[in-house]
Amino acid sequence: MDASKKKELQKLACKVRMGVIEGTYNAKSGHPGGSLSISDTLTYLYFNKMNVDPKDPENSDRDRFVLSKGHTAPALYSVLALKGFFPEEEIKSLRHIGALLQGHPCIHIPGVDMSSGSLGQGISAACGMALAGKLDGKSYKVYSILGDGEIEEGQVWEAAMFAAHKGLDNLVAIVDNNGLQIDGPISEVCSPEPITDKFAAFGWHVITMDAHDFDDIDRAFSEADSVSGKPVVIVQKSVKGKGVSFMENQVGWHGTTPNKEQYEQAMSELTAQLKGLED
Amino acid sequence: MADVIKKATRESYGEALRDLAGEYKDLIVLDADLAAATKTGIFKKAYPDRFFDCGIAEANMMGVAAGLAACGKIPFASTFAMFAAGRAFEIVRNSIGYPHLNVKIGATHAGISVGEDGATHQCNEDIALMRTIPGMTIINPCDDVEAKAAVKAALDFNGPVYMRFGRLAVPVINDAATYKFELGKGVVMKEGSDITIVATGLMVNEALEAAKALEAEGISARVVNIHTIKPLDKELIIRCAKETGVIVTAEEHSIIGGLGSAVADAVTEGCPVPVVKIGVNDEFGHSGPAADLLKEFGLSAENIAKTAKEAIKLK
User: Fold this and answer.
1) Selected residue of A108, A131, A170 to mutate for chain B interface (largest B Cβ count, 10 A)
2) Fold exhibited by the domain A3-278
3) pLDDT band, residue B51 (cuts 50/70/90)
4) Cβ–Cβ < 8 Å for B285, B293
């Protein structure tokens, strides 16, 4: 990836993270930790990979995205707002009564391809979208991000079996391996590891990726494009809370939101990161 | 009189899918390793490229159906009622109902007439479960003619539809040549003034038989067929309450949350009269031949007639 593109994506990702903090702070609820861990990947997908157009959001040839780990909607909404699907102001009314932006993704929000949030379900819908693409002879791809805790859901493995059996090579699942779920580290709760081996055994092409390095993200998604005959899973090693020092790798920031002081500190850290990129 | 033709509505489902597939190019069928039983095998034989077996994984099948519908397909997700409404309930609610996607659920082997397989497979709760999902349409056809018409009506309707079919062969009581299906409209099968029997599914024929028996005893019973349980034809139900003053409901489903509950809700609001419910009481079924089970659980013309006579005394 060339340096200017990389810098542009880094700056956008910084703004996405600011949206996550802005949204969850104003909502006084929501899930910042897992939103921050997928911010770079989402930025890459929407600004460097997927064929989507906010002026034509229902185009049947567009690439699809399903946020199977739907509780991290703040990151998706932040990306969609930056992309122009709806005004950035909407972020401030996330989760409020009468607001466009629901606590979890809703298909009626511009740019959202599928309602999701009850864990394990989004990946099945993504399989259906990929199958529809095959039936219609369309070349779009379907991307879906799952949590590493989410894959403890049995439905994920029903979907994994289905996608491999039907040869859905237009499906790319991304497992956000930040290592933490609500009750603690995934290794202590009910470990889904080894994640890569499990998907390989289910017949998927497995790629690993550093979720916070755009060169590596670019490499991983390019490799995904070269695969045929099998669905692809990218297991991304990520940092929960990435970008906000006091949130990084802390279980507690899964579903806790910043108070005023923490909000100001987080925003000042992100502002400094953005400024550092704009020199 | 000609011999009564009997046919299971699951058979009608499979045939209707096959017969409509030519006209409806987006129609595709999903099953969960039960194609021989749900009769989607009939469709599979004619359109193998539009049939997808999801294996024994109903949760994923419902989610796949949602994704297909989000891309413009009209998927018919097919399995036993127990697994469609029971096991996959939350996926139907969150992945199909909440986004209001155009998924059709073909739920066969509903009710106690599943027979020998016993309580684990006799689903008497599906109508109750599906009624609680906002925007879900529920159709429970009474015979072959109505079942086929229901499949077409579901195809022409944009939104999630739960269709309930049976395993047991039941009499064909409608005339295919003249039959017209109107989604959400009840059908007065027989006029009457002393009482209304509101029935659904295979109980419609039992209700008609009961009305005949009551007629012989000088009681005029009206019979209403409710094929669309949601949205309910409240106008017709309330009119029947006003005109006959008492209602007996009859369904092959739990008396909790099904047709009887829906009718009672409507009557309570619109014209409070006694409503007596016939259905499976708050208990599990057990193994046995379907005909014997229906009789044992009171899902018979005899019990409807007996209950109707008691109900009239409540007026």
Assistant:
1) A131
2) Rossmann fold (3.40.50)
3) very high
4) yes
